[in-house]
Specification:
Layout (H helix, E strand, L loop, with lengths): L1 H16 L1 H37 L5 E6 L10 E2 H8 L7 E16 L2 E10 L3 H5 L3 E4 L4 H5 L4 E4 L1 H8 L8 E4 L2 E9 L10 E5 H7 L11 E2 L1 E6 L5 H15 L10 E5 H44 L1 H9 L4 H37 L9 H27 L3 H6 L2
Parallel strand pairs: 4-9, 6-8
Antiparallel strand pairs: 1-11, 1-12, 2-10, 3-4, 3-7, 3-11, 5-8, 6-9, 7-8
Length: 404
């Protein structure tokens, strides 16, 4: 135990005698550890953020949209498809359905303008998307059937055009058509779904340039549906697929010209992509750790050369090869661990700063990241310090004492 503590004391003295060199050597480790921790924390934060956003509308939400056929031709969904899916005889496991048209348009109010996504939706939007009205009201079924020019806006639109003042009862121009604002939507955490204006889908189709297909039926962008519960999702997808293949006249063996996805599958796919991207960024950040480790090895080789006579003297008074190995390994690990500790502190500060600035982004320093950084730092010290330590231990004490 005494010999080990003495090796630590000697290692600390050696590092203190070359403070600038030690700091520059640690710099690569510091940058690498900080980068790895920040990227891992950011990746976990993005994963939580995405999961929260999609989970807020329920795990039983399903979305159908068109996809190209085998020849690359895209045939949009139509109101005919939505009507067929609304029939409970076709889709027994669906409790709610909403066709949606999405168009982009310039919105103008008293000289101010902004470009926004205009969503043509039905009167059951709030229940499907799990949203609430914080001011005013949502449009009714009668207004939907009457193609009324009424609109519900998000709070982001209120901030853009109305400087935070209640817009209920005011008129805006969407494209060339005047709409009366009757309500304001709540904000979702992180703004998912914000920045949009909702109008009756019938009004969007009649007045905002929604195109028709060759049969004269209105095209729609998506069909949003709710399964009766999370256990009915798979059965609902089968029923939706069967119904759409019939309405779109897809023959047996032919590829579907649409796709049906569930919230859970979207979340799983996105988290997989985020996970792979985080690993990739972590590997890139790890390159600086490799560079830092090479720097540790280089400095330790220089240190062995500079202290050749010291090594010879220690061997002459009875030091064993393992004592020399331990001494230089401790010095290499000290460089790596100190560099890693500084990197952890820098990462903690930056993560806290990001969390304070981006309040809607759930980023935090993870204990697993700190443990990983400590293990990596120690491993770098051992891996890149073992060769210089063994080289020092193999020195002949007589030759070492004669070294100038």
């Amino acid at each position: 135990m005494y010999a080990f503590s003495e090796n630590i004391r000697v290692a600390m003295i050696a590092l203190q005698m070359n403070k600038l060199r030690a700091f520059l050597t640690m710099l690569g480790i510091t940058i690498g550890v900080a980068a790895v921790i920040i990227l891992i924390s950011a990746g976990q934060g993005v994963s939580v953020f995405v999961t929260n956003q999609f989970s807020s509308v329920g795990s039983n939400l399903l979305v159908a949209f068109a996809q190209p056929d085998k020849n690359g031709k895209l045939t949009s969904l139509t109101m005919k498809d939505a009507t067929a899916l609304s029939d409970p005889l076709n889709t027994q496991d669906l409790s709610n359905i909403m066709p949606e048209n999405l168009v982009n348009s310039v919105v103008v109010y008293e000289g101010k303008s902004t470009t926004s996504g205009i969503q043509g939706v039905t009167a059951n939007y709030l229940s499907i998307m799990n949203r609430k009205i914080v001011n005013g009201r949502f449009f009714t079924q009668a207004e939907l059937e009457g193609q009324e020019r009424v609109a519900v806006v998000s709070k982001e639109i209120v901030d853009r055009l109305f400087d935070g003042v209640s817009p209920v009862g005011r008129n805006v121009r969407i494209g060339s058509v005047r709409f009366q604002i009757i309500g304001v939507l709540d904000s979702t955490s992180g703004g998912f779904g914000d920045g949009a204006i909702l109008v009756p889908i019938t009004t969007a189709q009649a007045r905002l340039g929604v195109r028709r297909d060759v049969t004269g039926d209105y095209r729609i962008s998506f069909i949003l549906m709710q399964a009766r519960d999370s256990d009915s999702v798979d059965a609902a997808i089968q029923q939706i697929t069967r119904t759409l293949r019939q309405t779109r006249e897809i023959k047996a063996g032919e590829k579907d010209t649409f796709m049906v996805v569930s919230q859970s599958s979207v979340i799983s796919t996105l988290n997989s992509v985020i996970g792979l991207f985080t690993i990739f960024l972590g590997v890139v950040a790890g390159i600086s750790l490799l560079v830092g480790g090479i720097g540790v090895m280089n400095i330790m080789l220089v240190t062995v050369t500079e202290r050749t006579r010291e090594i010879g003297l220690r061997k002459a008074v009875g030091a064993q090869n393992r004592d020399i190995v331990v001494q230089f390994l401790i010095e290499a690990m000290a460089l790596s661990l100190f560099g890693g500790a500084i990197g952890v502190l820098i990462a903690a500060g930056l993560v806290s700063l990001i969390g304070a600035v981006a309040t809607t982004f759930p980023i935090s320093l993870q204990l697993s990241s700190i443990v990983l950084a400590t293990v990596i730092s120690a491993s770098v010290g051992i891996f890149f310090g073992i060769y210089p330590a063994q080289r020092a231990a193999k020195l002949n004490p007589i030759d070492a004492l004669r070294y100038e």
